[in-house]
Amino acid sequence: MKKRERNASLAQSISGELRCPHCHESMEVKDLKSLVCINNHTFDFAKQGYVNMLKKPVNTQYDDALFDSRERIISDVDLYGPIHDRIAEIIMKKSLRDGVLFDAGSGEGSHLNKILHKIDGDMLTGIGLDISKEGVLMAAKNYAGYVWVVGDLANPPLAGDSCKFILNFLSPANYSEFTRILTGDGIIIKVIPGSSYLKELRNELFSSTGESEYENNDTLELMKRNVTVVSEERITYTKSLNAVGLKDLITMSPLGWHADDSQTADFIRRGDKDITVDMHIVVAVSK
């Protein structure tokens, strides 16, 4: 069975959890090649296995180089390993009955893959959605066994009460849609950077700008206005990166997009630097 057919078959097993982004009606998989709603809106699976369900094309600033760097930092360097471990623990303590883990803003899919590989059993179906076609294409190429969707968080192709877990890892949130698709006993797991996150990049590349400091108060307040926060914990540690790792980190991070080229080159050339990971893991339920 080809990758397109395998992923279409997986989507078929959860087709009741999907809805058409155009008319919001139910969908089903036809001939292991397309998702079709009752109004005949049709979305074909690409040969790589993903399905594009955007209503219209969107240009993003995320390119292959960024996603290649991100995949290496997450999968090979394992920069976020302790964060993935803790999220897997939260999920396993909640429940492992059949259900959907929806990665809202999945990029190239590495976070979803890392977390689900730490969970015992195959009870959860992973769905990764991102507005970047380049990211979702890479996810589909690298990680089998998930439903990969190019889509919009403002209009995710998911039915109401369809997701037991929603993961939102360093990505924008759409809380009205999150609460719509969350099951009654489901949880939102949001990962927010703390004030010391990547402080070495901020201190050395942005010491004279407002980018040298970061606070997450606005992000937390927005979350608390829209959902009920049930727990919050902070995990902080350092990870040593060599020159290759530093280059990848700067390439994937918005912090590096506007940095001075000469400063960036000097920072990378020195290599072997301890980088701070400082994250808040916030768990919430619908109000």
Concise structural overview:
This protein has helices spanning 3-13, 64-76, 81-94, 110-116, 133-142, 175-181, 199-205, 217-226, 243-252, 254-257, 261-270; strands at residues 27-30, 34-37, 42-44, 51-52, 99-104, 124-130, 147-150, 163-169, 182-193, 228-241, 273-285.
Write structural notes for this entry.
The chain has a single domain, classed as Rossmann fold, CATH 3.40.50. It has eleven helices and eleven strands. It is an alpha/beta fold. The chain is globular, with a radius of gyration of 19 Å. Helix 2 packs across helix 9, helix 3 crosses helix 4 and helix 9 runs antiparallel to helix 11.
Furnish the topology, listing elements before pairings.
Elements lengths: L2 H11 L13 E4 L3 E4 L4 E3 L6 E2 L11 H13 L4 H14 L4 E6 L5 H7 L7 E7 L2 H10 L4 E4 L12 E7 L5 H7 E12 L5 H7 L11 H10 L1 E14 L1 H10 L1 H4 L3 H10 L2 E13 L2
Parallel strand pairs: 4-7, 5-6, 5-8, 6-7, 8-9
Antiparallel strand pairs: 1-2, 2-3, 9-11, 10-11
Helix pairs in contact: 2-9, 3-4, 9-11
Strand segment count: 11
Percent of residues in helices comes to 25-40%
Order of helices and strands: HEEEEHHEHEHEEHEHHEHHHE
Tally the structural domains: 1
The share of residues in extended strands comes to 25-35%
Count of alpha and pi helical runs: 11
CATH evolutionary superfamily? Vaccinia Virus protein VP39
Provide mean pLDDT, rounded: 92
From the coordinates shown, what is the CATH architecture?
3-Layer(aba) Sandwich
- Strand arrangement within the widest β-sheet reads 4-7-6-5-8-9-11-10
- Give unreliable regions as ranges: none
The CATH class assignment is Alpha Beta
CATH topology assignment: Rossmann fold
How big is the Rg?
19 Å
Largest sheet: 8 strands, mixed
Q: In whole angstroms, how far apart are the ends?
A: 44 Å
Structural class: alpha/beta
Keywords: Metal-binding, Methyltransferase, S-adenosyl-L-methionine, Transferase, Zinc
InterPro entries: RlmA_N, rRNA_m1G-MeTrfase_A_prd, SAM-dependent_MTases_sf
Organism: Jeotgalicoccus saudimassiliensis
Protein name: 23S rRNA (Guanine(748)-N(1))-methyltransferase
